[in-house]
């Protein structure tokens, strides 16, 4: 009789569960307290025949131990669950957590965008992984033209050399965004295309395999070179100060005709000539020109009705001029000593 009772209790104890600390305590009271089920067995134990006492005593002790172990383990499981759901994380950095700063390229990019947005330009985006058609062909780069060499980039796939849409590459300039935009929109529009671009260059203090550009494009009826010049003068003065002068030198880009390179008066020596401007008084900051009619036509825009201007600048270049960063590599090294220099710049 008593042995059976012990067996049943053993099984019962083995399958106990509890959802919270209260329930564990209830179980402890039920089985292990003075008035609990196990102690109650003692009343019967007194009546057990002497030769059975040892055997049954051992069984009762086993039951007591099993109940104690089970209840302890239920309690432990509950505290583990509690600490897992608790959001106290002792490995976190103590307060105050230092605030980061904007990256210098972001600060300058935002400043460029802000100036042109005030002149009516809106942002347009394009893919960093693009095809030959949009990055070169639609922009009037003939397949065998040496201008392609100026922008040697990384080719990802060339499954069909004769099909420019099958030649997948990392864009070498954000001018590709212009072809994407022009082929899907009707003029007039004034767009600004900021973004990262890639070139196959050996990495040094003065060149990197990726950098950032902001390009602008305005297409409308009767857009003229004078408009371009005035917009760029306004930009230069906003960016580098009201005393800034600009000059345009003839240049070549496949997608503009005529094309020009723009210099600003050296804001370090005020145009007098110094080491920074190589004693010329001028520093180059961007390329620009009137959109070549071939580009407009390739994008489905009637070049008899519309004209446009475009320009493109390197964000690193402008940042170097503003903050005199001497080594391009510092922009992507993530050295917090360098980045902390710009905490107050924005
Ligand atoms: N895409 C040129 C480059 O990467 C820069 C440029 C020059 C962009 C003239 C233009 C432009 O839109 O009109 O060197």
Automatic annotation (TrEMBL):
Pfam families: Phe_tRNA-synt_N, tRNA-synt_2d. The keyword Nucleotide-binding applies. Tetramer of two alpha and two beta subunits. It is found in: Cytoplasm. Its EC number is 6.1.1.20. Belongs to the class-II aminoacyl-tRNA synthetase family. Phe-tRNA synthetase alpha subunit type 1 subfamily. Binds 2 magnesium ions per tetramer. GO terms for molecular function: ATP binding; magnesium ion binding; phenylalanine-tRNA ligase activity; tRNA binding. Keywords: Aminoacyl-tRNA synthetase, ATP-binding, Cytoplasm, Ligase, Magnesium, Metal-binding, Nucleotide-binding, Protein biosynthesis. It catalyses: tRNA(Phe) + L-phenylalanine + ATP = L-phenylalanyl-tRNA(Phe) + AMP + diphosphate + H(+). One of its GO terms (cellular component) is cytoplasm. Its cofactor is Mg(2+). Coiled coil: none annotated. One of its GO terms (biological process) is phenylalanyl-tRNA aminoacylation. This is Phenylalanine--tRNA ligase alpha subunit. Residues 108-321 form the Aminoacyl-transfer RNA synthetases class-II family profile domain. NCBIfam families: pheS. Mg(2+) binds at residue 257.
